[in-house]
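Forwarding the complex inputs:
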Amino acid sequence: MKILYFAWLRDKAGMSEWQVSPPPGIVTVGALIDWLAAQNASQAEVFADRSVVRVAVNQDFAEADTPVGPGDEVAFFPPVTGG
Amino acid sequence: MIRVQREAFDVGREIAALTAGNTRIGGVASFVGLVRDLGGLRSMTLEHYPGMTERQLELIDAEAHRRWPLEASLIVHRYGRLEPGDPIVLTITASAHRQAAFDSCNFLMDWLKTEAPFWKREEGADGERWVTARADDDAARERWRETG
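Prediction (whole assembly, two chains):
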């Protein structure tokens, strides 16, 4: 599974992407966030305030109950500020 | 149509290209967003999510065509480093009648403000900062919610 970070979430993560292999029980965005946040201190920082974290799975907006699995591209970013 | 590019755009040329050969068009509306400086801004860098950006802009464009009888439309959004006064975004809508053009152009901007994965970082005399999202933008999108 490919994890991407954008804008200031990338700054907090200290990287723009990484490959992860969560355990088989991690099948939703919400569970994935719980698992990522427990991996290390910078990941805990990324997900410290989940109200400002937006998620996309395979480039579509997603919610906590959106399914995720091996091979998916999951991106985390703050609320968008384009236009 | 949608485009994501680093380069500037020429509004007149884009309108001419979009409307060429289609005499059913009776009205064209356009909006250009510029880098605003209310004091101290040196530059702004727009980051985006390549792939998702195009996908979301396509969805927004298709939604405008679903809601209004449009003959043509265009969204151009820039990324990279921009300076105060530089154009960031362009939306153009063309229809037989003006109301559809005006309304859909407004709609495109309201939706892309909250749905297109772009993030602005401002560089000023006192350093850099990420621009935070505005509640106004969410409210502006909400007024297009379809009821019933």
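The two ends of chain B are 29 Å apart (CA to CA).
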